[in-house]
Design a protein that fits this description.
Layout: H1 3-34, H2 36-39, H3 52-58, H4 60-72, E1 76-80, E2 86-92, E3 100-105, H5 116-124, E4 128-132, H6 151-165, E5 170-176, H7 178-187, E6 195-201, H8 207-219, H9 223-238, H10 247-250, E7 258-263, H11 272-280, E8 285-290, H12 298-301, H13 303-317
Parallel strand pairs: 3-4, 3-5, 5-6, 6-7, 7-8
Antiparallel strand pairs: 1-2, 2-4
Helix pairs in contact: 1-9, 3-4, 4-5, 6-7, 8-9
Length: 319
């Protein structure tokens, strides 16, 4: 065997090993961030999750909302989409008929129950409430979340479910954190006129930017090559790329009036992301920036300002 052939085999073997290590690192990150195990690291019982018992004891609004949700104890409503995938939601219906509907979408590692504070406010104002369970969370089908990319189609399935029950429905979309990304991505799709407005609370611009900051902050790792490796794994094995999950691109051609809410001290989803989203949004838009407020703390820290802004948006588009 000539020296050139030996060298070529060594180079090829090294390349295969390097590619395997690259995808292996990407796979490890995806399993560590996006898998069902990662999404369910908090207990099923919401009050056992870190910080929630403190919230329950010290935040009257949180306690009232959680007691209301548990008192109703909504069962899972099951819906199968066009691909035969099982979708789950908690649904709370008004006793009297109402054409007003809220779809409230929870965040990463969270639960529909965590949306009780938003749901009770709308319920008291005459809304039926749907709180979907995001992919890979709880006992949903699918092993991985896509941070909103595929989940937006689940929201559209619930929109169609509502309209099939109530053709005159007027629908508000609301999401927190990853749920905010989900509803923003939904508004980038062609939606029925029944969808009237959207509240995006502490949502991110796109997955690549989010993970670039998170991997540096949480793991002390450089974005390259780790974020790139995870992105390559997601493209090859999960069917989407981090660049596909880009709410900032979705809102740029949205027609759904949107309120952006964000805490100025958010360390999980940086505050500058809201400014970028607001700037790019092509639909009628409002924004609420709150000082001394971290991630998903807007409603707790400034409930009056929060609901004043939400109610102002909703009143403009739902009569």
């Amino acid at each position: 065997m000539s020296k050139k052939i030996k060298a070529a085999k060594i180079i090829a073997g090294t390349a295969v090993i390097a590619a395997g290590a690259y995808l292996g690192a990407g796979g490890a990150l995806c399993y560590g961030i996006l898998s069902k195990k990662a999404c369910n690291k908090h207990p099923e019982e919401l009050l056992q999750a870190p910080g929630n018992m403190h919230r329950y004891m010290n935040d009257e609004n949180f306690r009232t909302a959680d007691d209301w949700y548990c008192g109703i104890n909504p069962e899972d409503t099951v819906l199968y989409n066009e691909k035969g995938e099982k979708l789950l939601s908690k649904i709370v219906l008004r006793d009297e008929p109402s054409h007003k509907w809220l779809i409230a979408v929870h965040g990463y590692t969270s639960r529909p129950r965590a949306m009780a504070r938003q749901a009770i406010h709308f319920y008291k104002n005459g809304y039926n409430c749907i709180m979907p369970c995001q992919r890979a969370h709880r006992n949903r089908d699918g092993y991985f979340t896509s941070m909103g990319y595929y989940e937006k189609f689940d929201v559209i399935s619930w929109i169609n479910y509502i309209i099939s029950r109530d053709p005159e429905a007027e629908i508000v979309l609301l999401g927190i954190s990853m749920g905010s990304a989900t509803v923003m991505l939904t508004t980038g799709e062609k939606l029925p006129k029944n969808v009237k407005c959207c509240i995006a609370d502490c949502g991110f611009t796109d997955c690549r930017e989010l993970f670039t900051g998170a991997i540096k902050r949480e793991a002390g790792l450089p974005p390259f090559p780790f974020v790139n490796a995870a992105d390559s794994f997601a493209k090859l094995f999960l069917g989407w790329s981090f660049s596909d999950c880009a709410p900032v691109r979705a809102v740029s051609h949205s027609e759904t009036p949107t309120l952006f809410i964000h805490g100025e001290e958010d360390k999980v989803v940086p505050f500058w992301m809201m400014e970028a989203l607001y700037e790019k949004c092509s639909a009628p838009k409002m924004k609420l920036a709150l000082p001394d407020t971290g991630h998903d703390e807007a409603c707790a820290n400034f409930p009056e300002k929060y609901w004043e802004a939400v109610d102002s948006l909703v009143a403009e588009y739902i009569k």
